[in-house]
Amino acid sequence: MTAPLSKITSKSQTVIPKAVREKLGLKPGDLLRYVFDGKRVVIEKARTEAEDDPFATFGEWAGKADEKAYRGL
Length: 73
Fold this sequence. Notes:
The chain contains 3 helices and 2 strands.
């Protein structure tokens, strides 16, 4: 399999190839991170704040009262 290619436009824009979007699970609105590695740049899906928050999956702690009570912790 050959590596996917995309062309840079005159406005420095490009389309992320479908194979790359599918592999990274990209959706509209997702953020990308560009990691410099010598002469290479690695593109990866950036984690969202919710993915970085270990408590984001606990819906019972998502109320306004809980936000107020735990804000200073």
